[in-house]
Structures are given as C-alpha cells and as structure tokens.
Amino acid sequence: MAVFLSAASRVVVQGMTGAEGRRHTRRMLASGTAVVGGVNPRKAGTSVAFDGREVPVHGTVKEAVAATGADVSVVFVPPPYVRAAVDEAVDAGLGLVVVITEGVPVHDTVAFRARAEAAGVRLVGPNCPGLISPGLSNAGIIPADITGPGRIGLVSKSGTLTYQLMYELRDLGFSTCVGIGGDPVVGTTHIDCLRAFEADPATELVVMIGEIGGDAEERAADFVKAGVTKPVVGYVAGFTAPEGRTMGHAGAIVSGSTGTALAKKEALEAAGVRVGTTPSETARLAREALG
Fold first, then answer.
1. Residue 109: CB partners within 8 Å, gap ≥ 6?
2. Catalytic one among 24, 58, 190, 249?
3. Residues in CB range of 199: below 8 A, 6 or more apart
4. Annotated catalytic, 107?
5. Domains detected in the chain
6. pLDDT in tens, 104-133
C-alpha cells in the first residue's frame, strides 16, 4: 500500500524541458517512477533523452493524458505560470498534482487550490519537495536513495527535515513521505496526511514535522486527539528562533505567543503526540514508539 502514490502511478512533468525539470525527471526515472511524458507547448512533438530513454513532449496536459494515460503531474514551471499549469492539469482530469515551484503568489495558490478541491484533485504544494513511496514511485525532488520501504508515514512542512528524518530512520523505512510545503496556503495539509496514514494498513507510525508560524500543527493536534489511533511522533522546527526574526518559509510567521514552537509542542503533547526538540531526538522517539 502507499498514500496518494503507487507503483501504478503514471507521471507527466510540466516543465520537463527546463533545467530543473530535466534534472529531477532523470532522478525520478532512476528511482523507478513511471514518467510517461512532459508538457511544453513550444516543444510538442519532440522528446528528451534520459540515459538512453526517450520521453515524449506534448503540447498540453490533456494531450499527454490521452497519449499516455498519465494520472499524476509534477509542476516545475516558473512562479508566474504555475496557476495556469495547475488549472490545465486539473481540467485534464489528473488525480494528483504536485507543485514543486517556490515563490508562487499566495492569491494564485488560493485560486488553484479551490479549483483543485472542487474537481476532487489532490494537490501537494506549492513550494514542496513532493512525495515518495519508497520502492514504488517518486513524484518530486526527494532523494530516493536515502531510505527504503517500511512502516513509517512521514508528513513535513520542511524539505530538508524530510530528508533528515528519512535518513535517520532509514533502517526502519517508510510507507510514504509527503512534503506538504511551508507556504501560508498549501493544498494537502498535515490533517489530510494523518487521515490517509490512519487508513493505510502499511503505516504503523506517523512522524509529523511542523515549524513555527500559523496554527496548522495545533489543528493537527486536535485531529489526532479526535480520531488517530496510531502512534504519532512530532517535531516542530524553530525552538531557537529569535523573536521577531523572519525565518525561511513564508508561513513561518509568529504573532506574540501564537505560532511558537513551544505552543505547538504543548498542543501536540496534550493530544498524546510525543514531540522531540531535535530531529535526532524525534527519530529516537519514533524507534521507541515502534518498539
């Protein structure tokens, strides 16, 4: 089993012909992902060679879906064009759209998230590393060689912390790792992933990584308390962040005592989540929880 992604997923890459699109399409293919096409209206009818394999380029997502049966899109287009790219993918009937691009205007995200939700399309991102079901499929930029299949489900706002926890728990392995992104508005949330991991028989433990700013972690704590039966271990980045300092992610905005790492830790612990104060401590807590 896997969450949101499986070995049967057929991936099309919007922006595959650009530098970042090419680099990460090659990595996705190397990890076994079924990348079946790219999209670039100016290069339709051509193909791109990846280590001896030719991947066709289509003019539109709809054409790519008709030709390949794609059901997932990974978006690498520049920020001003992301809204149009996501709208195109949604209109083409894809089930999952993963937006890697950072710097997407929030009002654009609000608009295409609403459109995706109305169409029943799963949106991950923007400003995220994507998601991976180790050994099955990898949609995004998460390194595929730092862990393998296992019993842990991981959901994280931070890309680098996703990689660190995957590495620290590599001997136990993961069912699916989802990087949801750190922007103020994102598609898939902690709660969405907690719900999916709770329903996934291959996931025995959930590791949830948050960060300062907003109230997503507090809302996730309420959800855990209300209906998650599997053990959850958490980490909140930003315990040492100086007050009033702007941090890296656009969503990392603290207002008074609201949104601090301590407030989030307390909310999660009140819901029964064991929270580490460092990534390594979080990994230790996860090992203890799995026995």
1. 126, 183, 185, 186
2. 249
3. none
4. no
5. 10-124 (3.40.50.720), 146-290 (3.40.50.261)
6. 999 999 999 999 999 999 999 999 999 999
